[in-house]
Specification:
Elements (H helix, E strand, L loop, with lengths): L2 E2 L2 E2 H25 L1 H7 L2 H27 L6 H9 L1 H17 L2 H4 L6 H38 L1
Antiparallel strand pairs: 1-2
Helix pairs in contact: 1-2, 1-3, 1-5, 1-7, 3-5, 4-7, 5-7
Length: about 150
């Protein structure tokens, strides 16, 4: 299925991805900087990251289908290449947000043979990694969207 009601699926799903990636990234940054938010939000951050992760390849595959319908125009080559790389920023963000969530579960961290001090440093390192992955995801989704818009409107 590459269209809905005659409209190409790619522009429809892309709007979800363009919103979901920055929102997921911002949630990741917030829960990294504010542990109480991580406690209150519970399973929501990793679930949001999972939904975003699932949406990215759907948008990419729909884009490839649209590209084939259009006859592989050269104007969208950069956009397609960057779109294929977006998963490389969103997947680590999901994995690190999931690890961060798991590290807050007593059933998980009690099984890890780390001292309390080492666990604190592990949480800090993971928080930093989440924030870096979030920034990378926001930057890459911006680049993908910019090249896509330029290809469509130029």
């Amino acid at each position: 299925m590459d269209s809905i009601a005659g409209l190409p699926l790619h522009p429809l799903i892309v709007h979800f991805v363009v919103v979901a990636v920055p929102v997921t990234a911002l949630v990741g940054i917030v829960v990294s900087l504010w542990p109480r938010a991580r406690t209150h939000l519970g399973w929501f951050p990793p679930l949001l990251a999972l939904v975003t992760l699932i949406a990215v390849p759907i948008a990419s595959n729909a884009g490839e289908a649209l590209e084939e319908k259009l006859g592989h125009p050269a104007s969208i080559a950069d956009h397609a290449e960057l779109g294929d790389k977006l998963i490389l920023a969103v997947a680590p963000l999901f994995l690190m947000m999931l690890a961060q969530w798991l590290l807050d579960r007593p059933a998980c961290y009690e099984r890890i043979p780390l001292s309390a001090a080492a666990l604190i440093w592990a949480r800090r390192g993971l928080a930093l990694a989440v924030m870096l992955a979030a920034i990378a995801a926001i930057w890459l989704v911006f680049l993908v969207g910019d090249t896509g818009a330029r290809a469509v409107w130029s």
